[in-house]
Each structure stands twice: as C-alpha cells, then as structure tokens.
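Duplicate of #3305? Posting structure anyway:
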C-alpha cells in the first residue's frame, strides 16, 4: 500500500509539472536525462530497499506486464505525426513499436493460462519491448537535439506524463520482469 501511495504522489507531481509548463522550457536532452534519472532512482530503490524489493517480488508477473498496455499511446504518436505535430521519422517507428509491444502483451495476458512456455514468450516479448522503449528514448533525444521544437508535443499535458512518469516505470518494469524470469 505504501508504494502505491508513493506512485500516486509521483503521478500527481508529474501531472503538476506538466501543467506548470516547466517541461516546455527544457532543452533536449534534459527530458531524456529526467527519464534516466527517474529510472535509475527506481532501480536503486529496488536494489537497496529490502522492503521495496520484497514488495516487487510479490507482484504478479501479469501485473508487471499489464502496465505495458499503456503503450497503446503509440496511436497518439501516429495521430500527431499525421497532424505534423511530431516528426514522422520519430512517430511512425515509436508509435508502431509501442502498439506492437502493447498488442503482444495483451495477447500474452489473454492467453496466459494456455501458454505452455510462458518464460520463453514473456522473455522474448520483454527483450523486444525494452529495446523498443530504449530506441524511442534515443530517437526522441536525437530529434530534439536536431530541432528543439520537433518534440514539443511530448512536453505538454497529457503526453508530458510520459517522460516524467510512464517511461521510467516501463523501463524499470522490463528490468524487473527479466529479474523475475531469471528466478
């Protein structure tokens, strides 16, 4: 319960920062540094807090995977690309990759009881998902460095919650899933 409250406070803070307009003043690669810092903070908490680590071990693997259903946000990337609010060279691969990862997660979750080799399928999906999200972060940084305004849509609500909350959770969840599969 304590960690759910912390996550809720973090989400509210991410929304408040997005609403304040503070993110819009940040030049790339600062948003990616924020993602890296928040991800690192989560991973350090996981590795150094016995209580947090024990709690993570009690979470059903399906719940760790279900967070990745939020990656259907990739549809928004495609929409913004069609409106020329995100560069096609970023939005198409990022959007399609996120949609594919979310779709495969949904299929795995729906077929969970019938999966005979869960570890293999989840491991393959997890590896692809981690590579995809890391590629999205790197691509976003590259586009932002080349043209600061090209990624502006990701620094306004509601999408500002991606770098300040969701992406660090997604990357961390991939690492936690690998840890769980290893055991």
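Output from current build:
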């Amino acid at each position: 319960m304590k960690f759910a409250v912390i996550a809720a406070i973090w989400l509210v803070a991410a929304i408040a920062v997005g609403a304040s307009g503070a993110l819009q003043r940040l030049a790339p690669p600062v948003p990616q540094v924020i993602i890296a810092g928040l991800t690192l903070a989560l991973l350090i908490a996981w590795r150094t807090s016995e209580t947090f680590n024990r709690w993570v071990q009690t979470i059903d693997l399906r719940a760790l995977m279900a967070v990745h259903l939020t990656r259907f946000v990739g549809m928004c990337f495609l929409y913004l690309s069609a409106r020329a609010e995100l560069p096609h060279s970023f939005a198409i691969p990022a959007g399609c990759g996120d949609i594919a990862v979310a779709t495969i997660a949904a299929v795995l979750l729906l077929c969970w009881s019938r999966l005979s080799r869960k570890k293999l399928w989840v491991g393959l999906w997890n590896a692809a998902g981690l590579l995809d999200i890391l590629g999205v972060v790197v691509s976003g940084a590259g586009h932002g460095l080349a043209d600061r305004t090209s990624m502006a849509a990701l620094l306004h609500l509601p999408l500002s919650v991606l770098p300040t909350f969701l992406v660090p959770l997604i990357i961390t969840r991939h690492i936690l899933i690998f840890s769980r599969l290893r055991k």
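Confirmed duplicate; merging threads. The chain has a mean pLDDT of 95. Helices lie at 2-20, 30-48, 50-58, 61-66, 74-82, 88-110, 118-146, 161-182.
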